[in-house]
């Protein structure tokens, strides 16, 4: 069985090389709007998506992320011009699942409209630093929020490598 959604799920890949050109406001809004439609436990909609597009903040976030990696020379955003940082409220027991699903939904939406995207890790550690906490305050986020992940977005540069085959024992029939 197949349909457009199932095909889109299989076609999504992580992109690790981006054109400099910024994505359009319409594309950004399609992706973030999709994120708001992810299911959340009890329908609480507790996650927050913070859209970052200005070069200065992008560079700061990337530097913070590289510091967590332990390699200040790394470029963990791969030149992507947009980052959507997903936070979720640790006061909600399912915050991690809720935030992860928002992020996963955005990745899929991005792919479905032809954008490159990738989940970038280390959001939790990045926003536990004094610099990170200051950014959260600036963005109006309570200190009960935790960084779940970063969805980088942009136009794909070059070819994305073919995916690995799915594991044979991925699905277990009970
Ligand atoms: C929780 C999580 C964290 C990830 N962190 C990173 C990351 O920091 N950097 C990166 O390049 N890719 C990251 N990825 C992307 C995975 O490496 C990628 O999804 C995996 O290799 C499968 O490739 P695909 O997305 O093209 O199917 C992350 C994915 C997930 C789900």
Can you walk through the features of this model?
This protein is α+β, with helices and mostly antiparallel strands and 174 residues long. The chain is 38% helix and 16% strand. It has six helices and four strands. The protein has helices at residues 4-11, 25-36, 55-69, 95-112, 123-126, 130-138; strands at residues 48-52, 82-89, 116-120, 145-154. A four-stranded antiparallel beta sheet has the order 1-2-4-3. The mean pLDDT is 98. The structure holds flavin mononucleotide.
Mean pLDDT: 98
Assembly status = single chain
- Tally of helical segments: 6
Hey, roughly how much beta strand do the residues contain? 15-25%
Strand order of the main beta sheet, please?
Answer: 1-2-4-3
How many strands in all? Answer: 4
> Low-confidence stretches at least 5 residues in length (pLDDT < 50)?
none
List of distinct ligands in this structure? flavin mononucleotide
Structural class: alpha+beta
Helix content: 25-40%
Shape: globular
Main sheet specs:
4 strands, antiparallel
Query: Gap between N and C termini, in Å?
Result: 22 Å
The string of secondary-structure elements, in order, is: HHEHEHEHHE
Notable characteristics:
4-stranded antiparallel β-sheet; 174 residues; binds flavin mononucleotide; alpha+beta; globular
């Amino acid at each position: 069985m197949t349909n457009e959604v199932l095909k889109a799920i299989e076609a999504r890949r992580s992109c690790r090389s981006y054109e400099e050109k910024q994505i359009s406001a319409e594309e950004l809004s399609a992706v973030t709007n999709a994120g708001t439609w992810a299911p959340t436990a009890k329908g609480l909609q507790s996650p927050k998506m913070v859209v970052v597009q200005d070069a200065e903040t992008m560079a700061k976030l990337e530097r913070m992320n590289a510091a967590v990696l332990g390699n200040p020379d790394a470029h963990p955003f791969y030149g992507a011009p947009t980052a959507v940082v997903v936070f979720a409220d640790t006061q909600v027991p399912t915050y991690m699942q809720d935030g992860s699903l928002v992020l996963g939904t955005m990745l899929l939406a991005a792919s479905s409209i032809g954008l490159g995207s990738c989940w970038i890790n280390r959001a939790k550690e990045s926003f536990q630093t004094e610099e990170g906490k200051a950014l959260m305050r600036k963005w109006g986020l309570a200190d009960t929020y935790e960084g779940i992940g970063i969805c980088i977005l942009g136009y794909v540069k070059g070819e994305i490598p073919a995916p690995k085959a799915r594991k044979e024992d991925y699905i277990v029939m009970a």
